[in-house]
Amino acid sequence: MEVPTTKFTLEAPAGLIDIEARCSERKAESITFTNVPAFVVYDNEEVEVPSIGPVLVSAVYSGMWYAVVDDVDTKHGIPIEPENGKKLCAFGECVKQAARQKLPVVHPENPEINSVSIIVLRSSTRDKATVVMPNGGFSWDDPDTWTGMLDRSPCGTGTSAVMALEQAR
Q1: InterPro entries this protein is in (predicted)?
Q2: Taking CA 63 as the corner, what is the angle to CA 71 and CA 90, rounded to the nearest 5 degrees?
Q3: Does 26 lie in the same domain as 52?
């Protein structure tokens, strides 16, 4: 640890992240980081989702490709609440699969990064959001596969994706 500032680079799944810690008395008092670039390629594109209907989806890169859906509570009748976990997972996985088919994405520097990986669902008041992470295979013909896991904790790449989307608007 170096006082007053310690700098280092962390290798993360999203890429190399520059970290800066402001230090005093052998403790970090604050930490900032420079995340990987984040950018929007689609904003509120209408995607027809089987069994759901039309959904406005944004596609944002921030370490991976995110699909972002706003206003799931008011536009789709699914408040972001624990009791709606199963509905949110099914909705999110179906939208993600449809977005993969309808919104082609390719990272400009790495063509192997070419598919939406994860989805962010946001409330109309923007005070609640959740990420739906897949937990198995998916088949349009088998609703039992429309599952996932919810993550309500903010992460660096997801937060950066949402910030890039807000900035682009």
Answers
A1: Pro_racemase_fam
A2: 40
A3: no
- Residue type at 43 in one-letter notation: D
The alpha carbon dihedral of 19, 14, 146, 47 has a sign of positive
Q: What pLDDT is stored for residue 140 in this prediction?
A: 87
Residue 43 shares a structural domain with residue 111: yes
Do 91 and 141 fall within a single domain?
yes
Q: What's the pLDDT score for residue 57?
A: 98
Question: Do 78 and 158 belong to one domain?
Answer: yes
Unique residue bearing structure tokens 């980081």: 33
Same domain assignment for residues 148 and 161: yes
Do residues 58 and 21 both lie within one domain? no
Structure tokens at 103: 């919104």
Asked whether the beta carbons of 14 and 61 are under 8 A apart, the reply is no
List pLDDT tens digits, range 41-94: 999 999 999 999 999 999 999 999 999 999 999 999 999 999 999 999 999 999
Q: Is 153's pLDDT higher than 90?
A: no
What amino acid occupies position 68? V
Site of tokens 């290798």: 11
Torsion of CA 105, 109, 113, 119, to 10 degrees: -60
